[in-house]
């Protein structure tokens, strides 16, 4: 079991590389992976169940301690990312299916790896976990509402169909995971130790299935989609950080806000796009999954070196005392 837990940690720490390797492999050998399309929704449910296993009541204590900070992060996430997606679709005059895919990933809750990136960045981990949990729990209502509001101009959007999908693949598995943890207690600890491995394998399969199913379309317009995805993610980080600065949050919380706003649950985006729109609409989510894990790792490395001048001054004063 220790060996499996160690493998799980290694795979979790090298997540971006596995996503990138298999995305490239799926592009050049789509026939190997195209049959995996049917596994997208069940695998996302498995990832969400794993998230439920790790959620504790203490994770929501941050909401009670600093409700306005959590509320700021949640509002920033659901305003900035959908808004930036809509602006980019207009600016680049994207075709309908690609535009819906970009808006869809923009309307998803925070990404499952944002908490890891916040920890690496020396951000406020409690705030990060609280924002990710609240955005995920609000997703069944807010995600379909925002997609309907912003994407209906390109393609027909059914609020109720999206609502039921997210309820089934996000909220229900999370609730089951929380219940399993409450009922089984320490007995789920072994499962929790191998969750990074399960999550990485699941997200890699989702990405490869989407890339394989849309290989021809990616070859035709992949560079355009990739440029939009990179801009979307970058503006998310930038506007998230400056939102924290505008509201005079300490540096650790500004880091958390940047990563929670900029990183999306792209697995959910891919699953919804595949189920309700088309394989092409799932491509922005698949490329976002590859890119935000690379950019998140780079940004967290940069953030790790940043120090708050006020905190530095305090440390110097303590040293003199």
TrEMBL record:
Principal subcellular localisation of the protein: membrane
Annotated GO CC locations: membrane
Residue stretches spanning the membrane: 7-28, 34-55, 67-88, 94-113, 125-150, 162-180, 192-216, 222-244
Subcellular location: Membrane
Pfam families for this protein: SBF
Membrane topology: Multi-pass membrane protein
Keywords carried by this UniProt record: Membrane, Transmembrane, Transmembrane helix
InterPro entries named among the record's database cross-references: BilAc:Na_symport/Acr3 (IPR002657), Bilac:Na_transpt (IPR004710), Na+/solute_symporter_sf (IPR038770)
Name under which the protein is recorded: Sodium-dependent transporter YocS
Gene source species: Pseudomonas protegens (strain DSM 19095 / LMG 27888 / CFBP 6595 / CHA0)
């Amino acid at each position: 079991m220790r060996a499996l837990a160690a493998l799980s940690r290694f795979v979790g720490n090298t997540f971006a590389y596995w996503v990138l390797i298999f995305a490239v492999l799926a592009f050049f050998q789509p026939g190997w992976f195209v049959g995996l399309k049917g596994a997208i929704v069940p695998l996302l449910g498995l990832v969400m169940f794993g998230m439920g296993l790790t959620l504790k009541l203490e994770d929501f204590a941050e909401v009670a301690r600093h409700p306005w900070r959590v509320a700021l992060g949640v509002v920033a996430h659901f305003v900035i990312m959908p808004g930036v997606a809509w602006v980019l679709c207009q600016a680049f005059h994207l075709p309908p299916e690609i535009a819906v895919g970009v808006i869809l990933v923009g309307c998803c809750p925070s990404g499952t790896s944002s908490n890891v990136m916040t920890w690496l960045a020396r951000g406020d981990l409690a705030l990060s976990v609280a924002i990710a949990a609240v955005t995920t729990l609000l997703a069944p209502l807010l995600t379909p509402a925002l997609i309907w509001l912003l994407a209906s101009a390109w393609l027909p959007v059914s609020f109720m169909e999206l609502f039921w999908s997210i309820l089934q693949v996000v909220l229900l598995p999370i609730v089951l995971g929380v219940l399993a943890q409450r009922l089984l207690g320490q007995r789920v600890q072994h499962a929790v130790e191998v969750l990074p491995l399960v999550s990485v394998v699941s997200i890699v399969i989702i990405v490869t299935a989407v890339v394989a199913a849309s290989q021809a379309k990616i070859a035709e317009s992949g560079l355009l989609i990739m440029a939009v995805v990179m801009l979307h993610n970058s503006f998310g980080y930038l506007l998230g950080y400056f939102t924290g600065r505008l509201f005079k949050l300490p540096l650790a919380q500004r880091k958390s806000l940047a990563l929670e706003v900029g990183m999306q649950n792209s697995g959910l985006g891919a699953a919804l796009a595949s189920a309700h729109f088309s394989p092409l609409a799932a491509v922005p989510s698949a490329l976002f999954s590859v890119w935000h894990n690379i950019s998140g790792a780079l940004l967290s490395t940069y953030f790790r070196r940043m120090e708050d001048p006020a905190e530095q001054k305090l440390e110097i004063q303590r040293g003199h005392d």
